[in-house]
Amino acid sequence: MTRPKLFAPLLLLAGCIACSQAPAPSASRANATPAPGAGATTPAPDTALTPVPVFTDSRQAAIAAASADRAVADAAIAYLRALGPAGLDVLKQAHGAEIAFRLGEAATGSAPDAAAGDRVLRAFDKVSGQHDGWASGLYWHTDAETARAEARARGLPILNLYLLGTLDDEFC
């Protein structure tokens, strides 16, 4: 009997590999067409007309991950997420001042822009695969095979946790 992939997070914490698997997302609710008579007044935006950049440089993607343009930020986050733990490391390097401020480790000075800071935190949540990933610095794999391969390569055990939801949501 196989277990459903819905409940299989694995963790890399102090010598373990982290992996959290969630169900594949269904059609985006933001772009979903409402049912007739649902009272919607604005149509869903046509994202096919918006050019989305293709990133080839991780540093450029880390900076763009906090972009005010959501399509650019999402493309950059997807690129960094595909890099795995290295993508999270690049994001930490690019936005170290914001993280130091949030952790209370920043030198005294002016506070960073709140809206930009929120975008940085969102990028950390999505790239790390967990809510408040900026604070823990952990990367959560969403594919068990990738987690197993990394665990074998690094000689680390896998801590397997079962829970409902995705870890990058506040109330998973």
Description:
The chain is mainly alpha-helical and 172 residues long. It has 7 helices and 3 strands. The protein has one domain (5-22, 54-160). The chain has a 3-stranded antiparallel sheet, with no helix packed on it. A hairpin with a 6-residue loop joins strand 1 (10-11) and strand 2 (18-19). Helix 1 crosses helix 2 (70-83) and helix 3 (85-94) runs antiparallel to helix 5. The longest helix has 15 residues, at 114-128.
Task: Give a quick precis of the structure.
The protein is mainly α.
Please give the structural blueprint.
Elements: E1 10-11, E2 18-19, H1 58-64, H2 70-83, H3 85-94, H4 96-102, H5 114-128, H6 133-136, H7 144-154, E3 159-160
Antiparallel strand pairs: 1-2, 1-3
Helix pairs in contact: 1-2, 1-3, 2-3, 2-5, 3-5
Task: Please tag this protein with its features.
single chain, 172 residues, mainly alpha, three-stranded antiparallel beta sheet, 7 helices, 3 strands, 40% helix, 3% strand, globular, disordered N terminus
Query: How far apart lie the N and C ends?
Result: 26 Å
Strand fraction? under 5%
> Uncertain spans, ≥5 residues at pLDDT below 50?
1-15, 22-47
Largest sheet: 3 strands, antiparallel
Q: Looking at the structure, what is the overall shape?
A: globular
